[in-house]
Specification:
Belongs to the glycosyltransferase 28 family. MurG subfamily. It is found in: Cell membrane. Cell wall formation. Catalyzes the transfer of a GlcNAc subunit on undecaprenyl-pyrophosphoryl-MurNAc-pentapeptide (lipid intermediate I) to form undecaprenyl-pyrophosphoryl-MurNAc-(pentapeptide)GlcNAc (lipid intermediate II). This protein is α/β, with parallel strands linked by helices. Helices cover 43% and strands 15% of the residues. The strands form two sheets. The protein has a seven-stranded parallel beta sheet, with helices on both faces. A six-stranded parallel beta sheet has the order 10-9-8-11-12-13, with helices on both faces. α10 packs across α13. The radius of gyration is 20 Å and the shape is globular. Bound molecules: uridine-diphosphate-N-acetylglucosamine (UD1).
Amino acid sequence: MRVIVSGGGTGGHIYPALALLEQLKKRDLLDDVLYIGTKRGLERRIVPKAGIPFDTIELQGFKRSLSLDNIKTVSRFLGGLSKAKHILKTFKPDVVVGTGGYVSAAILFEAARLHIPTVIHEQNSVAGVTNKFLCHFVDKIGTVFPEVEAAFPAKKVQRVGNPRAQQVANLLPNDRLADFGLDPKRRTLLIFGGSRGAPMINQAAVNAIPVFGQSNFQTLFVTGRRHFDTIQKQLPSLPDNVKVVPYVDDMPAILPDIALVIGRSGATSIAELTALGIPSVLIPSPNVTGNHQFINAQSLKKAGAALVVPEPQLDDHFGQMVADLMQDDVRLLDMTRAAKSLGVPDASDRLIQLMQQAIKEH
Ligand SMILES: CC(=O)N[C@H]1[C@@H](OP(=O)(O)OP(=O)(O)OC[C@H]2O[C@@H](n3ccc(=O)[nH]c3=O)[C@H](O)[C@@H]2O)O[C@H](CO)[C@@H](O)[C@@H]1O
């Protein structure tokens, strides 16, 4: 099939789209593809690097409060529609898929107007602004969390899981940690605050490094690109068993070798943790729509797969608490099993089925 995909701003919207494309290719279902993003989102760097043809439509997100910026947003959206129409008429897709973020608004809206089959994917437990707008026009809506489904027209909704889960589900331990100067055989803690990094998590990591440095496990601390210089200044010297990097380009390569993650509870991160069965200490971002990271994290906490530490509870004992957990084999094993029980290892196939249904019923 000929597919246009669009989603972005942050990695949590991009990696599910790339995972879906990988599975379409694997099943020999992809005749041609075009990815639509903006020039400013992370997708501009990540998508061409993955070898996917990439084009942009310039849009901007709505501010939550009334502001002049929202008038600019509307006028850009209208401008975006004419470029979207041109792209759709030229590329002639069989289906257009949106994975969230305002970047996907114009192309999905215009595709629906031109009666091209459309599908959106909502990764979170609370509907994003763009998907809430698009849900009235598209044909099908793939979800991950049951909590979100009431926000959408019921007959369009299908629970599919997050395609990134299928991409990582069967990966095996390997030696790629060596690329970071780490020992692939040693127990490893990974710290990262979503795709952009999170200053609160970075600070907690900086405070905990003296404890981690004295432990018998090793730590990979991913700061997020824009925070790397600040953190390097705070950490002029490092213990041998701690490495600090700005970003990991190929996260699936190292995840099978991770014993515990300290991180945000973004939906795509959670899909990876549950597909592979990785225990986690989750620190939800408080600055997201409807506090969805907190809700995302609760499902893992309830199952016993994760500990949840709200930002205000990050204190001087955090490092020691994590170090103790890293050494507690029984608890880690229980958390591993619990995490794995929540994974959806066939999420891409389910989303592909939804796309095929949208095409067939159109
Ligand atoms: C602040 C914010 O608005 N965050 C949202 C954003 O998060 P964000 O973009 O951080 O998304 P997620 O935590 O869901 O996913 C991050 C993705 O980036 C990857 N990764 C991360 C670091 C790195 O160095 N390399 C790398 O490849 C992870 O493996 C994962 O695949 O989108 C998610 C999915 O809609 C939402 O749930 C989050 O609430």
